[in-house]
């Protein structure tokens, strides 16, 4: 089972504490203006500097370093508190050499009791091995024996194959929610077997793919223009800055592959 590390401050509690502090509350309201659409423009010509100085002042408050938990009550509100103070830091990281935001996450870290030796044995599978054992079928049977695995797997399969009335697709939001619940709550010894069981034929591989990523979870009757989801992501501050982290990670991997240890500085 996953066990959350609870040493971090809760962003909801940190937000409430800040609200009760007149100085912190005032700066937090200013910060909210900075990230609310074009709110920074309302602060005058020095808006960007004022926003950054506000963030700097809040770095010593209880807001900095707070975290959220996946699936917690008021999770979206907790995330909004977290990103309120981190959005400027993320923007700076895109253009500031040496600034590290790759480990920045709104969620508390999880410690899982993974058996990596066992996981390696799942994925290894010698090509020359002659066996009649169907590991994927065994994984499905093992899941059906476990009450939680069977119940949550049945739930996401139900949501992800059920077609809506007058539509040629399922309820994608319910499908995504059920999939996340399955992989978050079911122990790794079951999910890893389903994810990494070796297949030797196309039919097995297709069944495994539908188990991991049901077609409903990503396919749609009308294919959107690639710019549409990008525009949608830009309108959501959480998506916007998670995307920024991904971009920084990609840029770092490219520079490392070229032999750069620091931003724009070749290794000796």
From TrEMBL:
- From the Swiss-Prot or TrEMBL record, what is one GO molecular function term? glial cell-derived neurotrophic factor receptor activity
Q: Which InterPro entries match?
A: GDNF/GAS1, GDNF_rcpt
Name used for this protein in its record: GDNF/GAS1 domain-containing protein
SMART domains documented for this protein: GDNF
Q: Where in the cell is it found?
A: Cell membrane
The residues covered by the GDNF/GAS1 domain are: 11-90, 136-216
What PANTHER family does this protein map onto? GDNF FAMILY RECEPTOR ALPHA-4, GDNF RECEPTOR ALPHA
Identify the keywords attached in UniProt to this record, alphabetized: Cell membrane, Glycoprotein, Membrane, Signal
GO cellular component term of the entry, any: receptor complex
Where is it mostly found?
membrane
An example GO biological process term is:
nervous system development
């Amino acid at each position: 089972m996953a066990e959350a590390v609870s040493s971090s401050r809760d962003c909801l509690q940190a937000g409430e504490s800040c609200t009760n502090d007149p100085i912190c509350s005032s700066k937090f309201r200013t910060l909210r203006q900075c990230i609310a659409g074009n709110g920074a423009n309302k602060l005058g010509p020095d808006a960007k500097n004022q926003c950054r100085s506000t963030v700097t002042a809040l770095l010593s408050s209880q807001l900095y370093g707070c975290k959220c938990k996946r699936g917690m009550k008021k999770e979206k509100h907790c995330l909004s508190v977290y990103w309120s103070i981190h959005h400027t830091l993320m923007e700076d990281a895109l253009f500031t050499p040496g600034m590290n935001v790759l480990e920045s996450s709104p969620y508390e870290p999880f410690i899982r009791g993974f058996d990596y030796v066992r996981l390696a044995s799942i994925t290894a599978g010698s090509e020359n091995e002659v066996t009649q054992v169907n590991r994927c079928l065994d994984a499905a049977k093992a899941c059906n024996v476990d009450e939680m695995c069977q119940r949550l797997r049945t739930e996401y399969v139900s949501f992800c194959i059920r077609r809506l009335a007058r539509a040629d697709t399922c309820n994608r939001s319910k499908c995504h929610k059920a999939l996340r619940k399955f992989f978050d709550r079911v122990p790794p010894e079951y999910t890893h077997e389903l994810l990494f069981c070796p297949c030797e034929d196309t039919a097995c591989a297709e069944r495994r793919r539908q188990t991991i990523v049901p077609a409903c979870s990503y396919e749609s009757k009308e294919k959107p223009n690639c710019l549409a989801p990008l525009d949608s992501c830009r309108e959501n501050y959480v998506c916007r800055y998670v995307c920024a982290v991904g971009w920084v990670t990609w840029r770092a991997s490219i520079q490392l592959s070229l032999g750069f240890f620091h931003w724009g500085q070749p290794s000796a």
